[in-house]
Specification:
Layout: E1 16-18, E2 21-23, H1 41-44, H2 50-54, H3 58-68, E3 73-75, H4 88-106, E4 113-118, H5 124-137, E5 141-144, H6 159-168, E6 172-175, H7 181-184, H8 190-196, H9 199-209, H10 213-216, E7 222-225, H11 232-247, H12 259-265, E8 268-272, H13 279-286, E9 291-293, H14 306-312, H15 318-333
Parallel strand pairs: 3-4, 4-5, 5-6, 6-7, 7-8, 8-9
Antiparallel strand pairs: 1-2
Helix pairs in contact: 4-5, 5-6
């Protein structure tokens, strides 16, 4: 099936009904759109087959990976971009169900298909239970958004989650999403939601560095996915400026370590995109050991050519290209 572009007004014509709410929501306040259910015109308009999108059978996805030169794919579920229920136990059950299905599906190609398992961080007790379970299932990473609902990830009640992730050597994959309803409900169009969906990632990066998570858990590996990296040359100097102001005054809550130092020398990684304008500046800011990329298969934006775009760029070195495409993803996920 040929790709026909982004969906028109009526292309999202199939929905999930979860805990009395419709997902996705293409209209009104707090909108989101994604390629499931796959019975929608939206899903059928993608260049990738329904079999590849659903991984039924998983060999269909492997075939697309082979065409694009992708050796290993870590799966990120888009339905958990949004808070599906205020009921934390119900949300945890949904995540557990998905993780079980995804692990069983990936088991057909264990060397090539891996999962980033969504974890119910709003409930530390349930999160730790699921974290231990998905570790045994072979998850490549735990998946979280930039906040735990309305709360920042660095608040004390969540610290036991990071303690467990560090003990299990489980990478933290932070993903774009609208898990903070008070902000998302202000968005009134899909365009607004898509534009600002990366903003919660800034909250997540602040929590890891400015909120002291990495001060307390220095061995934790944290990656930031699908937000690109062009926002870092703005946010990092700003964090550094105010760190210098408040650390010099011993202000309570100021992290021990300069944010720029954490980014240059800590276990923090960012998934860049092949066409990012400021990628050389980001590499200079972070150093060359903190960047990787994602193929985004089978996403609506069809960024699966990101690998080729990076390979063809004349403004970054071959050494950096190899690190972005191979070395750093393997290091982050522990492959």
């Amino acid at each position: 099936m040929q790709h026909t572009g982004l969906p028109g007004p009526y292309a999202q014509d199939a929905y999930w009904l979860i805990d009395g709410q419709m997902f996705p929501r293409p209209y009104g306040y707090g909108p989101l759109i994604y390629g499931t259910p796959v019975s929608s015109k939206f899903a059928k308009s993608k260049k990738f087959s329904i079999e590849s999108q659903t991984m039924v059978p998983p060999s269909a996805r492997i075939a697309d990976m082979d065409k694009l030169g992708i050796d290993i794919q870590v799966l990120f579920p888009t339905i958990f971009l949004d808070m599906l229920s205020l009921d934390m136990q119900f949300e945890a059950a949904l995540m557990e169900s998905y993780n079980t299905w995804a692990a069983e599906t990936c088991a057909a190609y264990p060397d090539r298909l891996k999962i980033a398992a969504p974890i119910p961080v709003r409930s530390p007790e349930l999160a730790i239970k699921e974290l231990r379970r998905v570790k045994k299932l072979g998850a490549a990473a735990m998946l979280v958004n930039g906040s735990a609902g309305e709360q920042f990830l660095h608040e004390p009640q969540f610290d036991s989650i990071w303690t467990e992730a560090e003990a299990l050597d489980m990478p933290v994959a932070m993903y774009v999403g609208w898990n903070m309803p008070s902000i998302h409900k202000k968005m009134d169009t899909i365009f607004a939601s898509a534009t600002f969906v990366a903003v919660p990632m800034m909250f997540g990066l602040f929590s890891m560095i400015g909120g002291g998570i990495l001060d307390r858990h220095p061995k934790l590996r944290v990656g930031f996915f699908e937000a690109g990296a062009d926002w870092l040359p703005y946010l990092v100097p700003r964090m550094e400026r105010y760190w210098e102001v408040y650390s010099s005054k011993s202000w309570p809550g100021t992290p021990k370590r300069n944010p720029a130092d954490w980014l240059a020398n800590g276990n923090i990684y960012f998934a860049c995109e092949g066409d990012e304008r400021y990628l050389p500046d980001v590499a200079e800011l972070l150093g060359e050991d903190h960047l990787m990329t994602s193929a985004d298969l089978p996403h609506e934006e069809a960024l699966e050519n990101s690998i080729a775009e990076i390979e063809e760029r004349p403004d970054i070195s071959d050494t950096l290209k190899r690190k972005i495409l191979e070395e750093k993803p393997r290091r982050f996920f522990g492959f």
